[in-house]
Fold these 3 entries.
Entry 1:
Amino acid sequence: MELGQSIDLASLGSQLLVGLSRAMILFIVCAGLSFVLGVLRVPNVAHGSLYMIGAFSAYSVFALFGTSSTGFWLSLILAPFVVALVSLIAERALFCHLYQREHLMLLLFTFALMLIFGDLVKIIWGAEYRSVLAPSILRGSISIFGSSLPRYNLFLLIVGPLVAIGLWFFTSKTKIGKISRAAAVDREMVGVIGINVSWVFAGAFVLGCFLAGFGGALVAPTVSISLGMDHDIIIEAFLIVTIGGLGNIWGALVGSLIFGLTHSFGVLLWPQFAIVFPYAAVVIVLLLRPRGLLKSVW
């Protein structure tokens, strides 16, 4: 569609729904990154690599079951746990010794880890493109208020809010969630009352990485699974958590909605430069609210 061409309500509604569904994928990944930032104060550049591992793991589970619907549903369950296991090993072997280091060192360390993960993915899965097929129940499109929406995108619109509610319930209503929030504020005091802060941090890190893996498994049917998919998502994820407020999970949701919707409407208004719209929105937000839209925990 050329710039200036008339836009009908059906196209507008369709792009709105598509933008919202893409925002849900971004939110799930960014919520994990934001949780790690909020509790551990670790700018984990390797978060995107764990997202990529989640996508490749989903493909392996899917292929193992002969591309059946069972394989898809199991991939959504098992792939995030594969990522969680990888992250637990990395946290216990490496991260737990570095939490007191400067943020710049942590940034460089996680960047090196991202490169290592990228090579491991290439060794295990190769450089070929992979794909996952959604089950028959999630194929095709449906009409919502006159706008066409792929069924899988509708599925994402359901999963995203469920993850947000589940994460809110975990951090606000459960004992371990409250301990994690307390450790983010004053880790020394939490340790004084007899709580093993090291394992609290390990749990927070694994949960954040689990969400990255879950996001990778969810996105697998919508994209070509390939090397390098971690680079794009980590750039977008850091921009989103920055404009939302560092470490603020609800800020990650707001930032994801801004990023997803501006890109979607950019496709509708000016397809050749659609990628510019989300970054322009980021610039505007940071000019008006340098510390993010919601309260930063840093």
Note: Residues 29-229 form one domain.
Entry 2:
Amino acid sequence: MQRLVIVSDAWGQQVNGVVTTLTRTCQEMRSRGIEVQVIGPDSFRSFAMPGYSEIRLAILPYRKLAARLAEARPDGIHISTEGPLGWAARRYCRKHGIPFTTSFHTRFPDYVRARLPIPTAWTWAWLRHFHSPSAAVMTATQSLEDELKSRGFDRLVRWSRGVDLEVFVPRLEPSASTEPCLLYLGRVAQEKNVEAFLALQDQVPGRYVVVGDGPIRESLQAKHPQVEWRGYQSGQTLRDSLAEADCMVFPSRTDTFGLVMIEAMACGTPVAAFPEQGPLEVIQPGVSGGLSEDLAEAAAQALNCTRADARRRAEHFSWQRSTDQFVETVTRVSSNRHDGVTASS
């Protein structure tokens, strides 16, 4: 594998797990001498996705995208998302008999259902159709792979996630606070279930902090003025917030992984979550956090964990190992292409 093109509707200035994963994977591949080009919506006329103003969706991108792909002449093409660019790249690859890989990052049916009265069965059928010609569908966890398999998805392979253990580090001094600090980190949006975190105030005493922004922040902040709302953070400021917390609460039931969990654990902060797909793969109950259908119980478990154990759990995840999995898959598909194997119809 010498040249790879990644097509993604999530790129540029967006702040989410997809962009973080692609950014770190590209950095690692380039350090290995692989030429990587990411084609995102910033190269096309676009409009803001309803409810997600920071996400831009390309308008009728096929002709321009096809020209870019033809000019790049990559050894492999990876389609990261199921948006307009993803569909255009899929169309190009099928038209020219080029095998390609895809990845499943988002439980899109749950996101849609939270906003519109569309049966999830319809959205799952749409996603299954999108991924059906893919030579390999990459998934972050075994539990997600099992679910996709039960829903009729084929050719599933693993692509885990990593954390920068030199950026996300534990605090050096013990907390001077006499009450625990519970933190939520992520998009403040309906599908993230932030209300479940805020509801813990009636059950788990402590100082509550929200790091992140989104469409329902204003309304939630008005209802919970006692909570510390820090907005979007990055770099050292984000690291300091994570290291300051005694427990990070991850209330989402829709994420397929949840990078912020291992970033928190790398800072020595245990994580409390529901026993859903991402947390089940990441958290060791009673060691690096707590898992329970009762989120207050999960938080109590997490607050009893040691910061050293949380850090040790995070050290199992690396971008090097994650990139190994990605490169192995795209290289195998590229080799099949040169051997005369084309994408399935």
Note: The longest strand covers residues 52-58.
Entry 3:
Amino acid sequence: MNVLLLGGGGREHAMAWRLSQSPLCQALFVAPGNAGTSEYATNLAVNPNDFPAVRAAVLSHAISLVICGPEEPLVRGIQDFFKADEALQGIRFIGPSAEAAQLEGSKAYAKEFMAAFGIPTAGYRSFTAATLAEGLDYLDSRRPPIVLKADGLAAGKGVVILNDVGEAKTELEAMLSGKFGAASEEVVIEDFLDGIEFSVFVATDGKDFRVLPVAKDYKRIGVGDTGPNTGGMGSVSHPPFVDADMMAKVEQRIIMPTLRGIQERSLDYKGFIFIGLISVEGEPFVIEYNCRMGDPETQSVMARLNSDFLKLCLEMADGEVAAATIDIDPRQAATVVMVSGGYPGPYEKGKHIIGLADVTGSMVFHAGTTLDEVGDIVTNGGRVLAVTSYGDTFQEALSLSYENARKINFSGSNYRGDIGFDL
């Protein structure tokens, strides 16, 4: 069958790598893709947020299955667009409806959902510009650290943790004044949970589910989890503290109630649920939902997923997840992300990347890359490359990823040297 994967980041490169290995895949297209996805697929110059252009690509390339990688098209309603278009009937689609995608698109919606279905999460209140005064008063009652979250999509950067109430008040005013654009028209103030974070990925058809390899990512730009949040600087799979007892708690207390809520609210959900979790004294709490796979966790997760990924996607689309089997590689995987100078702030593009041919024993998944006019690979984003490796332990995997990251260079390149430091 012909498959279209929407997106152009490291997540999509890793997914394209796995999809291309399926005997069910006759032709794979990625829109817009990057320099790396072109190794496994045909890149299409199509913006995933341009629904008519996506429609035209689907029809012109006889696509049978569409998989949406990034969150923004889902929150904007691309799944609903497909369902409403008569010409697109019968084309399978992986990704939830716009209403279901509010689990990621609105922090306030997700919090209300968790409260309604008894899913453990941090205490919270949400505020808008109209209720700013109440928000400032509420901050006076909080004990630092204080967590402020932009309600909407902010590319993984809309979360701020502050250790001073005065700074939190200044930040709340800035966020409600447009610091993150429309994403922070509403701000959630959360109680701080002290623990260690991890990520669980669920494949579901809205009724049944399967759990993919568990991972842990590192969001802060600096060593020791310092500095501003990024889209993610690295990941490991499997985090050693997530044992069978913890996963039993996650399934019983979080995954199953989440699916019950999806069913009771008649949400149309065939796709992936990313559950960002934190272990507090051995008890799991939800930090956030995402309505798609995460990045850079996907790079480590796909490395360990030995099952036919395309077959799993078809089982989700056809409501047959109950029959799905998941085969997980027993080796550990670790990913180190290489970023542009200045990221997550302003950065330059078009820097030539050298050393890719020198990499041995690791996979290099492209994120912010493209080909220049003479066919050379150049930078085209903040997060540029993700170096992923296997090992008998995650430390071995990380050592190999770092060894190969040192072979790659582009002007201003940077990466965190302490991924996995807290494990």
Note: The radius of gyration is 21 Å.
